[in-house]
Amino acid sequence: MLSYKNHKEKISQIKEGKLSLIDNVNHFLSRIDEKKSINAFNFIFKEDAIKSAEKIEAKIKNGNAGKLAGLAVAVKDVLAIKDKPNTCSSKILKEFKSIYTATAVQKLISEDAIIIGKTNCDEFAMGSSNENSAFGSVLNPVDETRVPGGSSGGSAAAVAAGLCDVSLGTDTGGSIRQPASFCGVYGLKPTYGRVSRYGLTAFASSFDSIGPFASNVEDIAAALEVLSGKDDMDSTSADIEVPDYPSNLSLDKKFKIGIAKEYLGEGISAEVKDGINKVIAKLKENNFEIIELSLPHTEYTIAAYYILTTAEASSNLARYDGARYGYRSEGVSNLLEMYKQSRSDGFGKEVKRRIMLGTYVLSAGYYDAYYRKAQKVRRLIKNDFETAFKKVDLILTPTSPFTAFKLGEKTSDPLEMYLSDIFTTSANLAGIPGINIPAGKSSDGLPIGMQLLANQFDETKLLKLSYYIQNNIL
Ligand code: GLN
Question: Which CATH number characterizes residue 50's domain?
Fold first, then answer.
């Protein structure tokens, strides 16, 4: 067990000599070893982590350490770190090492965080259960017969099992929030453009965002502040001032909270609904104004999401051809065969399915019917949120319609799997931020997740209400 609640406490304990950073890092390393069966990590950077701990411990004592000094961080294996593997949990990149470091990771390192390893995920971040990985499935630490969610399953499981302080994940359609919900931790998807994507292996470039997982809101806020900001290496990163999130967590006014009727209708497990309703009731008791509203285009989110993201993926993944980097099939007679064979052998089933779907929706004759139409629907979904945020500060929904399902339960039915994202994809279509808050447990002890959504760049509101809920409602 850790002796601290959040990073702030960790730092004071180190300063007071009550905690040794080297012991702390060793604790995480041995715990990772103990929990090997959950398969959360693709790579562990033992020696580097201990070396950094020695250096940073001294800096803390000298009073010249960075904002995240000593924070033990695990990074999803789709974010580049110089000279380390970046496999995206795919056979096609299994031998690939990065030649530079992603901005998000570099920012953490520059503030003296310690990167302890890279976490398992669905191949190229495509999936909702972490069962599409060339490194094998990740098990949910709460119940090892169940999935941790996906695609950032390893990152969520690592925090839930106490294998690190904070982890990084990516969210294209829910891949931070949904696994956070299944594993019972906090996970925040920032506004599109808040965090630079430089060094993130692209899945769907107009949807992808990088964000933190943690066991508490304070650490989410501290990590987000460091991760955010304009980066010349990513032209889609926003040149908007980064608020001091960690110093602004207390609630100064009671927000208006919207409940969208489309998110609490049919198809949600009774226990999830019950869990969310309990939180809503407590918020009412605490004098929050709860306003019912409608997001009328909700029913089209999954269709629009899977058309647009597969289209972008089919283009982004064209670069893995056996020629430039990554896996190359041997024994082929000509160049075309080499491309075909390398891609056939190197990609897993789900990735191939998405490349085919994306190629189809972009092809002449189908472009207008699918791709262009889905773009229009994306605009309508964005408009729904713009209208809603004129009336309310935040929208509260379940994160997932169900709790963590059994390993293998949905692998034979991709459509059923895609429905796991029914409440999360809308935020990526609209480019808005969202957070998962652990909101109690089901009768079989599985975490129930609640989602808060905010308007673009309103992360401060998300964090303030999450902090209030963490301290007063749960
Ligand atoms: N589960 C969703 C998908 O399979 C979301 C993935 C993600 O956010 N990376 O596309």
Answer: 3.90.1300.10
